[in-house]
Structure formats: structure tokens, C-alpha cells
Amino acid sequence: MSTHKQTCVVVGQDDKEPIANAARFVYTIAHGGDYQKDWKEDDESTTTKKTAKEAEKHAEECSKLPMDCQLIGKLLENNDKLFSDAKAQDVETVFIIAATVAERFEVETERKKAFDMIAEKAMESATSKVESRSRILMQLYNLASDLETKFKLFCRIIEYVKKANMEHVVGTLVGHVEESMEEWKQMNNNNGSERNVYLEIANLLSGMGGKEEKAMEFMLKYLATFENSESALGESSAAAKDAIASFIRLKTSFSCDLLDYKAIQALKSSNGKVFELLEIFLTKDVSDYLAFAKSNGAVLKDLGLNEEETLTKMRLMSLGGIRNGGGEVSYKEICDKLKIDSKECEEWVVRGISSGLVDAKLDQVREVCIITRATQRVFGRDQWSELKNSLSNWSENLQSMKTLLSTSEDISTISAL
Fold this sequence. Notes:
Elements: H1 17-30, H2 46-64, H3 69-75, H4 79-85, H5 88-103, H6 108-122, H7 130-143, H8 147-163, H9 167-184, H10 195-206, H11 212-224, H12 237-249, H13 262-265, H14 267-270, H15 272-283, H16 286-295, H17 297-302, H18 307-321, E1 327-330, H19 331-338, H20 345-354, E2 358-363, E3 368-374, H21 381-416
Antiparallel strand pairs: 1-3, 2-3
Keywords: Cytoplasm, Initiation factor, Protein biosynthesis
GO molecular function: translation initiation factor activity
Family: Belongs to the eIF-3 subunit M family. Belongs to the CSN7/EIF3M family. CSN7 subfamily.
């Protein structure tokens, strides 16, 4: 076997020639030949001639096969040797030829089956030639014209990226999901399966350092797809639990609208304790959390929550809820609400300020905290409605003031006359 990487030339003049060139190349590589050497006319080596003759015979057989999956299987039957002994560019060229051939299959079922077969071949290893394999999958996606096939190939890409730990590709996938989701929803046999892409992307991001907020964003996109699919709510249970756990673990998020989601509300009947935990975080205090944790340690463990970190989050969220509209609050009240020692009060307020949870000043002489802004723990439909009404009233007041000023100017003008 030759130790150097082989080079494939697959330029053809008709429909069959690229197939023959690819088949000849793959066969030569698989049987230890040298593709360049085997086609030199002055080489008299018996072994070389034998390999060349057999490769030519194989190429002819492939060229005569019908345009169906049998041809694809024949072209890629030595897939493992191809990846190990040929240059990445040439491997990708062979796969492009196979995909181009598949795209021209007249029978739709054969075409879809062929693309699936090619993807399977590309995904056979998650440790060897992963960059080349991922490029092949992306090329398959670009070559496919059928929307359903493209969607399935994209799911394959996500699967492979996850299996091969290709974090640097995730950003590209995230952008493409956001661009293509509306199109995927238009698939003729759409059954809601496109929502699973949101979930897979969320899972990918959650395994990456520093991407927790983005992961949460995609998890919420997933849960939102059940708003008009109540019959499918049973599918959302595990993801709804994960979303709650993710929110509680997030160290940079202290407000959410999770309680508005039907998938979350459905947990009341299917997983009441998890729903109760979310309600505590969003509407109650540290004392309620401590009582819950004391009798429901198994729930916290099942959610993968660290008790100390969870208590820290609960204390910060309770701090933000003490004076939502701003105002003074005594050190004693803060200590009572957060269940902390008086010596820790200022430290917790500083933590709240540094996390962006509150804007506040400490008056150490009077032992009061003056809060000028606090993050609202629940910001859902009701809060948006209140904000809309406030903005509407503000706009009306501005208009009234404008009218009043205009009238005053008119009166002043008349008086001057």
C-alpha cells in the first residue's frame, strides 16, 4: 500500500464518466494501488497492470448500474479505505459525485434513501477526519433540493457535530436554524418535528462553556412551539424540567416569563414539585425555598441542582423582590428576607448590585439600603401588558401636553395682537 495520499481527477465529458472516474479511483485506493502510477502507460509492473485492469472493470460495472441506491452503495463500498488513504479534497469530490448522482434519481424514495446512505457513510467515524466528514455533510445539505431531505440532513449535521465535539461549528448551525426554521415549518408532511432542532441546538449549547444563556434561548423557542399544539404537550415534559433547572442554574438571569408557557404549566399535573420550585423562585422568598429543599432534596438532585448555588440564586432573587418599585429597606428586613446574619447584609447587597439585579446605595449610619431599581422576577404577558398601558398613557400625556402648549402659544399670539 502506498503511504502517500492519493489524488483523484474526476473530470468527465458525459453523465457516466464522473461515475467511472470516481469508481476507478476508489477501487484503486482500496486495493493498495497508486492512482497516478497505475495509469502510466510505460509502467510494466504486473501488479500495477492487474490493479488497473480490475479498477477499470469495476468502473465499467458501476457505469452500467441503474440510477438507484445500488450504484451509490457500489461507489462507496470501500469508504473506510478512501478516508484513510486519499486526500481530503479527493474524498469530498467522490462524495459530491455520489450526491450529484443521487440528486438525479427519478424515484423520490430512492433519492431520499441515497442521501441517507451517503450521510451514513460520511458519519461512520467521529474521531477520524472529522473536519472532512462535516464538510461532506454540509455539501450534501447544499446539494439536496428536497426540503424534507435538507431538514433531515441538517439534523444529521447536528448529530455529527455533537458526537465529534466540534464546538467551533455550532455558531454556524445556530445562525442557520434561525434563518431556516420558517421554511422548514412549510414542509408538506410537517408534523412539528422541526421543533426538535431547537432542542438539539439547546443541548449542544448547554454543553459548551459560556453558552448557557443562548442555550436557554433555544430551549424557550422549543417550548414555545407547543403553545398551539396542546395535544403534543406530553413531549415537552423533560424539556420543561430542563428549562426550569437551567434558569435556576443561570448566574446572570434573574427574570423570566417561564410561567406563561403552556409546557411549563403542564408540569402542574405531571411534575408538580418541579413547578412548585419554579413558583418559589419567581414569586416567593428564601424561607419558602428552605422549607421546600428540606423535604424535597430528591427533586433538587433529580434536576442536577447544587443546593448551595441554588440557595445563593434564591437569595439574590429575593433581594430583587424586596422593593420592586424602589425605596428604602432596612438591613434587618434584608437579613430576615434572605435568612442571613447581620454581618452579611452589605455583602449580599453588593453582590446584587454587581450582578445587575438592583441599583442601590448603602447608608451604613442609618443601616438602610436605598433601592432605585430592581429587576422584576416575573416578566411575562401581564407585565408586558402593564408596560404597554404605561407607555400608552405616557404617550397620551405627551400629546395632551403638546396640545396644551400649542393652545398657550395661540393665546399668547392673540393677546399680543
